[in-house]
Write a structure and sequence with these properties.
The complex is a heterodimer of chains A (402) and B (162). Chain A has 402 residues and is mainly alpha-helical. Helices cover 52% and strands 12% of the residues of chain A. Chain A folds into two domains: 48 residues, no CATH class; 313 residues, Cytochrome-c3 Hydrogenase, chain B, CATH 1.10.645. With 162 residues, chain B is of the alpha/beta class. Chain B has a single domain, classed as 2-Layer Sandwich (Beta Polymerase, domain 2). In chain B, 38% of the residues are buried. Classes of the chains: A mainly alpha (402), B alpha/beta (162). At the A-B interface, helix 2, helix 9, strand 6, strand 7 and strand 8 of A face strand 3, strand 4 and helix 3 of B.
């Protein structure tokens, strides 16, 4: 048999033999503990079955044993890359039940910090996504800037990651003196850094080769299988809850919804790069227009009293004692609030039976919906493309498994 | 018959015209419309909303356990229409013994994992589901952790093979 005939023979044999490959649970490109069973024919994926639940810690169950305010600390741990968005969604839902009026300063602070956390989350995505596709240096650059954001978080709340800064009724404390200076410093340096990333990637033949034309899917099908967020914006659909259902005074800010028409990994990259710039615009507007006043609602039965008042006023001391020991009761009812997290719609459903503990807290997390759509995105494609597509989904497994 | 709270809601009126027997209740709270639906008619109702009312997106499906009240389970469907920028919550109440409801995976493919999760954590069976197995808890786990009568610390021996 000639050499070519031999090779052809081998190729047919490979094509006809199906192989099952176990990707994960510990694999660098799965960004957490995700297992994907891949059925391969040659190098083409015929069938993919994601297996989740490795990080399931029963957060929804634990919520039922804590008081309403204590649950805020658990929401930090759901999507640990953009924890402030989780705090916000939960607090908005409970505030809806309590019918609380949040002061303008707290709302602006919330918007500003959520956008900062969107930037830090997108930075982790960009760094690890580029690392998966083979651009090692991006990771270092992105984490350099993320460090700046984390320092801002630490300055505000005393914590880098699990800030719990947004509380039911407002914020935990007012921003410390001098916050404008360090946020401004970040605003001044970051735009040039975004340009730096684009210089490194946009004309990089390996990056464009591995992202352009990879993993597009019909947008209606994406919506039907539950994919949400930047992925559908990359198909040209301007679906952004910050615009569609403005929460926490987003209607007062001037920004545009980033979209792209390609719908592939490249398009998702472009959408998120655009969101860096839009987030900066929002932060700048929030800083310039930051109202004065209190950062907590006037609801003595819900919000902890001022330290000074506690030492001088009897009522404040009683309220403090009541809130700390038994929590506060939330009127009977149910509420659902969806916000735009960096990954898509993050929804919190809370139900109360009128007691000091939630009857049910359900989290509609964007990663859960997006991973569910993974098989549709990678079936029929090469195994190397699946790494790029998984990276472009930007999922967090803690967010998925809860 | 439409309850008073939602009798002016255009969606509820349209749904009542489609099948008035399907609606068993509903309320409007903080601007959110909730329509309670008979469990047997969940598939036709969702088909109608998906095809005729442009509810193209299913945000999530989950359950609430109102133990010890009966009917104890509420299966909640959180829908969104992206074109009309509308949200709607559908609710089906199920009895505590052998809770069963039809799967809606044929209408919304994304319902698959949400139904599996609800089965996994509440023990609610979804008829005609393509693959109703545990999703978050390990295979062989006994019990349904999110039920209100499940202890928060878990059962001491809850694995079959240990």
């Amino acid at each position: 048999m000639s050499q070519t005939a031999l090779q052809e023979n081998e190729a047919t044999e490979l094509r006809s033999r199906r192989m099952v490959l176990n990707m994960g649970p510990q694999h660098p490109s799965t960004h957490g503990v995700l297992r994907v069973l891949l059925e391969l024919e040659g190098e083409t994926i015929q069938n993919a079955i994601p297996d989740i639940g490795f990080l399931h810690t029963g957060i929804e169950k634990q919520c039922e044993a804590l008081t309403w305010q204590q649950v805020v600390t658990l929401t930090d741990r759901v999507d640990y890359l953009s924890n402030l968005n989780n705090n916000l969604a939960y607090c908005l839902a409970v505030e809806k039940l309590l019918q609380l009026e949040i002061p303008a300063r707290a709302q602006f602070m919330r918007v500003m910090l959520c956008e900062l956390s969107r930037i830090s989350s997108h930075l982790v995505w960009l760094g690890t996504h580029a690392l998966d596709i083979g651009a090692m240096s991006m990771f270092m650059y992105c984490f350099r800037e993320r460090e700046e954001v984390l320092k801002i978080m630490e300055f505000f709340s005393g914590q880098r990651l699990m800030t719990s800064y947004i509380r039911i009724g407002g914020l935990s404390v007012d921003a410390p003196r001098g916050w404008e200076k360090i946020v401004k410093k970040f605003l001044d340096t970051f735009p040039s850094r975004v340009e730096q990333y684009e210089d490194l990637l946009n004309n990089n033949p390996i990056w464009t080769g591995r992202t352009k034309g990879v993993g597009p899917l019909d947008v209606n099908r994406m919506i039907n299988i539950g994919i949400n967020g930047p992925l559908i914006r990359a198909c040209g659909l301007p679906h952004d809850l910050r615009k569609m259902e403005p929460y926490s005074s987003y209607e007062k800010f001037d920004f545009k919804v980033c979209t792209h028409t390609d719908g592939d990994v490249w398009g998702r990259y472009q959408v998120r790069m655009g969101e860096f710039r839009e987030s900066l615009k929002i932060i700048k507007q929030a800083m310039d227009g930051m109202p004065g006043g209190a950062v907590t609602a006037t609801a003595p039965k819900v919000v902890l009293p001022d330290r000074e008042k506690m030492k001088t006023q009897m009522e404040a001391l009683i309220y403090h004692f009541k809130i700390v020991t038994e929590g506060f009761a939330v009127p009977e009812g149910e509420a659902y609030v969806g916000i735009e997290s960096p990954r898509g719609e993050l929804g919190y459903y809370v139900a109360s039976d009128g007691s000091a503990k939630p009857l049910r807290v359900h989290m509609r997390t964007p990663s859960f919906g997006n991973i569910q759509g993974l098989p549709d995105l990678i079936e029929g494609r090469m195994i190397a493309d699946s790494i790029a597509i998984m990276g472009s989904l930007d999922f967090v497994l803690g967010d998925c498994d809860r | 018959m439409l309850p008073d709270a939602i009798k002016d809601e255009p969606l509820a009126v349209a749904l009542a015209q489609f099948d008035s027997a399907a609606i068993t209740g509903g309320h409007k709270q903080f601007g959110d419309v909730t329509i309670e639906v008979a469990p047997a008619s969940i598939v036709p109702v969702l088909t109608y909303l998906h095809d005729k009312e442009q509810f193209n997106r299913l945000s999530t499906i989950f359950a609430v356990d109102r133990y010890p009240a009966e009917p104890r389970f509420e299966v909640i469907y959180q829908l969104q229409s992206m074109d009309r920028n509308l949200r709607l919550r559908l609710k089906a109440r199920l009895q505590g013994d052998n809770p069963e409801i039809d799967s809606v995976t044929n209408i919304y493919k994304g319902a698959n994992w949400y139904e599996r999760e609800t089965f996994d954590l509440f023990g609610i069976h979804f008829r005609n589901h393509p693959n109703l197995t545990r999703l978050l808890m390990p295979e062989g786990y006994i019990g349904y952790p999110l039920r209100r009568d499940f202890p928060i610390h878990g059962h001491k021996y809850s694995y079959k093979d240990e």
